[in-house]
Amino acid sequence: MSKTLRGPAERTLELLREPPDEPDVSAGYLDLLGASAKKSPSLAQSVMESTFLPRIYEKVWRPIGFNLAKGWPLGPDTAEEHAMARDWLGLSQPGYASRPPATVLDVACGPGNVTRALAAGVGAAGLVVGLDASETMLTRAVADTPHGDPVAYVRGDAVDLPFRDEAFDAVCCFGALYLFEDPWAALDGMTRVLKPGGNLIILTSRRPLPTPRLGADLLRRATGFTAFGDREITRALTDRGYTALRHRRYPLMQVAAARRP
Ligand SMILES: C[S@@+](CC[C@H](N)C(=O)[O-])C[C@H]1O[C@@H](n2cnc3c(N)ncnc32)[C@H](O)[C@@H]1O
C-alpha cells in the first residue's frame, strides 16, 4: 500500500477486489481506468465527460433538470432528495449527535454532490466512496469536497464495480442508471458489493406512458439514455430477493429503495 495514502483513500484501497500495486492518485482520486476507458462513449456520456458540464452541473443543470423531472414544486427538491437518501439508507441527518460509522458507496457520483450529502449522514469513522468514470466530473468532485470529509473518489466502471463482495453497508445510485450500457449488470454489481441487510437506493428515469419497445430502443441507441417503466426497477429488485421495498414515482423520475437479503 502506498505510503502517500492516508485516511479515506487508504481505507478505500482496502475495499478493492484487486488493489493496484502502485495506485494512481495523482489527480486526487484513485484512477482505476487510466487510458483503458471507453474511447467512444454514448452521446449522453460524452456530455458527462465534457469540461463544461461539471462547472454548471450542481448549481444549474442538476436542480433545474432534476427538479422539473421530479415535478417540482410538488416533488422533492434537492435538499429533500438528499434527506430521503440518508433516511432510506439508514444514515443520520446533519446535526444529529449520533451518526453511524457506515461505509457507503455512491455509484456514478458525478461532481460529488450526492456523495457529500451522504457524508453528512455518517460519523467520523464512516466512509463514503464516490465512483465515476468521468475524469472531469471527478476533478470537480475532488475540488468541491472539503478536506477532512470522510470521502474518497474512485475512477471506475459502475457496470463492473471494482470492490470486494459485501464491502458496503449502503449503496446509492442517483441520476445514472439510465446512462449505463447494461443497467441490470450494474444492479447485480451493486447487490454484490452490498452487505446482507444493507440498503440500496436508486433515483432514475421514469417513462410516464407505455412506449413501444421500438421507440425505447431507438432512444437508447441514439442517445445512450434508457427511460425505465414504472415497474422495471422494483421488479428487478424483487427478482434479486430485495425486501422492504419503497418506491416513489414522479413525472419523469422514480426513486426505489430496498434491503438486500
Ligand atoms: C447525471 S450524473 C449523476 C451525478 C450524481 N449522482 C447526481 O445524482 O447528481 C451521471 C454520472 O454517471 C456517470 N457514469 C455514466 N456511466 C458510467 C459508468 N459506466 N461508470 C461510471 N460512471 C458512469 C457519468 O460520468 C456522470 O458523472
Automatic annotation (TrEMBL):
Entry keyword Transferase: yes
SUPFAM superfamilies: S-adenosyl-L-methionine-dependent methyltransferases
InterPro entries hit by this protein: Methyltransf_11 (IPR013216), SAM-dependent_MTases_sf (IPR029063)
Pfam family, one: Methyltransf_11
Keywords annotated in UniProt: Methyltransferase, Transferase
Gene3D superfamilies referenced in this protein's UniProt entry, alphabetically: Vaccinia Virus protein VP39 (3.40.50.150)
Protein transport among keywords: no
Gene Ontology biological process terms from the UniProt entry: methylation
GO molecular function, one term: S-adenosylmethionine-dependent methyltransferase activity
Methyltransferase type domain boundaries: 105-202
Domain of life, source organism: Bacteria
Name this polypeptide is given: SAM-dependent methyltransferase
